[in-house]
User: Fold this.
Amino acid sequence: MSRFRYRNQLMMLLAPYLLGALALVGIPALLSIALAFMRYDGISAPAWVGTFNFRLIAANPTDFRFPVALYNTLYFVALATPLRVLGALALALWLNRERRGVGLYRAAVYLPTVIPDVAYALIWMWIFNPLYGPVNLIASVLGLPAPGWLADAKTAKLVFVFMSAFQIGEGFVVLLAGLKNIPSEYYAAAAVDGGNTWQQFRYITLPLLVPWLLLLALRDVIFSAQNIFTSNLIMTNGDPYYSTLFLPLVAYEEAFDRMHFGPGSAITILLSLATTVLIWFILSIIGRREITDAE
Amino acid sequence: MQSRKNSTRESGVGGERRRSSILFHLVSILASSLFILPLVWMISASLRQPGLPPPRAIEWIPDPVTWSNYARIFQLLPLGRYILNSSLIAGAAVCITLVTASWAGFAMSQLSPRGQNRFINLSIILLLIPVTAVWLARFILFRWLGFYNTYLALLAPSIMGSSPLFVLLFYWAFRRIPAELYEAARVEGASALTIWRQVALPLSSATLVAVGILAFLLYWSDFITPLLYLKSQSLYTLPVGLRQLQELDRTNWPLLMAGAVVMTFPAILLFGVVQRFFLQEGRLAGIYGK
Assistant:
């Protein structure tokens, strides 16, 4: 059979993936950029309004509280991402050895990552319940102060940070594989030179793991900023006093509660823009080569 | 192979080695318990009798143990119906996903190295775009297509293999198969579809199972899509049902935790099947390359 015909057949097999990606991601992405410059309520015809939506956001009406939501989102990402990446790194380093039972430990670390979002949000609401929750019960037994957690504007964001630190299975698995990829000769050479464990980590493991850690951090920035939506909606809906109002929830309320798709898209675009700048920034540091050659 | 890092450290005398082993297990058990704790507390709370005053100290096993919470949530809401809906959607989505994702992965594995790289890059870019970045426009598009309040909106992502990650998993699995096998089939005049079905798929059953389970979990857990698209209660899926349960009574924690257990249990069961695949072999890591 001719090479040409085989290639055509392969393109047919690729078609659902490519057309699906175009219809579900490509076109919606372009459409949401266009919507950000339009007025559209889902019923009457969309109208071009230029930069009106962005000026509206900048004027800071009480409907959005954009600066507060932006601050909350950045606060969350700035605390959650390092915690998650370093937590995954520590656990991967510790559990990267062939011992009996190590598979069980790894599975345990991954377990919270499997819990469906809605159930996960409810579980943490219970754990941090001021009166009944296990955390405050332990605190009272130990004689520690028992804060109101989600009911208190000062601590509410921390609950979100804390619960996100337990869903680190993906980063953990990725770093485990990264550690396996480091050739054993490097460690053998270090042993000959008399390097101790810390030196091995500092001069061999860490430098070789840096691209992985950066990519993990990058993905984490994107996803923790956006994936917070479900727990945000279930747990606090932005309360108390907008202290847990995160950007995806603002976009959701504006678009799906009030049917203001224009400003809703503008908010989404602003959030995506911030993360795109980060992607570009991190990619330019580590170089594209690192991620194209898989396996 | 993985022990190399410690081989030098452990070459000491037997006693020291045993001590380091005990330390390892001690710390590991401590860390593991921390991660299992949320699940333990969920189950324990689901067995509490509703309406009891707060316990004075932490109680691991509630007194009395109340199983009726589980029966109660099925009386309050048609959860059985929701579970059926969720299972049907996830089941259908898994079937479509396995075909489309493995097609794409297979085609990618057959391209020239340059072509392969191009599609890997594309998949990674797609992987970095979260649903919430395109949900508004997708909503308008789907409504215009008449997908609103139908399962088509929920199933649509399966057309593109549900997640670029699944496509990549198949791609890596198919690439591990020796090229001579593909060549031999092509010499005999087999089409791409035939080679996919008779050569590639039978040699990749582990990936097939793993992607199937991961895809099931994805649709089983999905909250945002049914929240946006489903209006009729008879169409609701379990995550939306759990949200309904919360809106019925926000403070009845035993009932809410029973609901959370019902939702989580199948996910953990399936994870038990698939955990070997990605915890021991680290195949997920392929995304991040070397």
